[in-house]
Amino acid sequence: MSKTASSRATTRVVAWACAAGAVVCVAVSWPPAARASGDTWAPLVAVALVLVAAGLLTVAAARATSDARTLGARHDELAARLREAEAALGEATAALAAEQEARADQRATVETAVVALSRKVQASAHRIQEEAARMVQRHSADPDVLQTSMRIDHAAAQHARQAQNLVALCGRRPGQTWDEPLALPDVVNAAAGRITAFQRVDVSGDPGLAVVGRAVEPLVHVVAELLANATQCSPPSTRVLVVVRQVQRGAVIEIDDGGVGLAPSELERVREVVSGARPVGIADLGEVPQTGLAVVGTYARLLGLRVDLVESVYGGLRAVVLVPGQLTTAAAAAPGALAPSVDDPRAEPVSAAPSVVPPPTGAGTGPVATGPARPAPGRAAPAEPRPGQQAASTPSLPTLPQRRSRRAPGATTAGTPAVPAPGIARPEPRPPAPQQTAEEAGAWIGAFFSGGDCAEPQPDHDSQEPSVATDGNSEDR
Amino acid sequence: MPVQKPVQKPTDGYHDHPVRSYVLTGGRAHPTRNTLRPETLLCAVDDGRELPLGAGRHERALLETCRGTLSLAELAAYLRLPASLVAVLVSDLIDAGYLAVRSGGAHDLPGIDLLEEVLDGLRNF
């Protein structure tokens, strides 16, 4: 500002100096001839003109100076206001950050609460399922009770799935866990059990491929949500085809529905969601929450699954789930269990928790019924090892009534499990403790009723008793 | 973090399984025949026919277990499943010709006269 003022003053000085210089010049250089001629008005006019010009310049300079002063004042004022605004902005930014932090905290708190509540709901649904299974066990010959139990079980399974959806939308892992690997077709069956229209699901494909225990629950849930979507989006009379196949990089589950598909833009959006590329949390659901595909995306991220939706050749959608190779394993030759089960309360469990399932299919090479050292493949695998049982079983062993295998003792060494239960002796030292397999029992009773004509699969050669769960029954005989 | 099942006592004998029983039977709780009783004897039909590829693991397990003659109740006990559920699965296998019902009426109950004689004999013992 002061610089501007001094430049204005300089302009004025220069203007006056120019005027004075011009006057002097005119006076000095006026030719004497002209002076002599008497034309004295010309220089005067010139001087007057110069003076007028100088005056005008002075006025203009003065006006410019006052303008500059006004501008300077405004400039100062604006600068002050800018500083104020900057300060206010800084405060607001800090407040916003604090607010965001508080909101994130609040959201985390809400999510934790939602997870806790959902898990309670899920646990109660599982409790209902357990009670239904017990009811069937108590009235095990009554098909009507079984029917009721199935309905209750089915309703509770869907209930549990919805609760687990909420947990997944909060980015948490499922609360339920399974220790044992599960064959992929059984994964699809398990998933079908959690949707309303489970009867419309047709599964086919490789039964020899399984998924490792830690991935079972999330994968079952992912497939359940995709199946739910497929059954809801296709006519109720159509079937949903599921194919399981092994591929170089793991395993693939393909789910085809016969619906009408999706518009390209919508399909694009949905693909982003299911692949996990666009995370959808519980706060992003909106007023008409569509949780299923968001849950698929969450678990796809957590597990490293590749999930995609493409147009199906049937006109509907095809959901493809690629299970990476590190999550797959070979399926056990014999299913450890078929369905939820309840031990007979009168039969105390004797063996340790089953850890190794002897393959029952290898006729002639398999193990023989040798006593409780054998894990029981027919029993459902418990979710956790049950040390209490194991400890209790060991001391009581010598007093247990045992049945003798009818095979030669030498044949019994063939296929003992790789991991015998700790504390349980080899069967040979207990000759008077015979134990019968399902097959032997069958052969015996068949021979009893029909004079031996049905005793085809005699123990000597064939050998393999399949799913045997003799340990639990041995005590009350 | 994983919340386990509610109050599951270690000895209460319940074993959960991801595959539910109604999926195994397609939702049916009643067998296709009403002649299956817990004491009905079952025997696998050994005609060299393999189960179709699409057969479920439960069907295979049932057939494996039933290689000898077993009563339905025993089969259920070995598989640790309720007898009513096994009856549904077994009836399907019988319908498909993989399992046969043994005995049927083969072991006729002894006449009431004989039973009375035995009873008298026991009483005289």
TrEMBL record, chain A:
Q: Which domain of life is it from?
A: Bacteria
Q: What Enzyme Commission number(s) appear in the record?
A: 2.7.13.3
Q: Where is the composition biased (Polar residues)?
A: 465-477
According to the UniProt entry, which residue ranges have a biased composition of type Low complexity? 366-392, 408-426
Cited InterPro entries = HATPase_C_sf, HATPase_dom, TCS_sensor_his_kinase
Q: Where are the transmembrane segments?
A: 46-65
Show the catalytic activity.
Answer: ATP + protein L-histidine = ADP + protein N-phospho-L-histidine
What the entry lists under SUPFAM superfamilies is as follows: ATPase domain of HSP90 chaperone/DNA topoisomerase II/histidine kinase (SSF55874)
Coiled-coil intervals: 68-102
Keywords in alphabetical order:
Coiled coil, Kinase, Membrane, Phosphoprotein, Transferase, Transmembrane, Transmembrane helix
What Pfam families is this protein classified in?
Answer: HATPase_c (PF02518)
Kindly report, in one word, the top-level EC class recorded for this enzyme: transferase
- Please report the stretch or stretches of sequence annotated as the Histidine kinase/HSP90-like ATPase domain: 217-324
- Ranges for the region named Disordered are 338-477
Q: What is this protein called?
A: histidine kinase
TrEMBL record, chain B:
Entry's Pfam families?
DUF742
Tell me the superkingdom of the source: Bacteria
Its name, as the record gives it, is DUF742 domain-containing protein
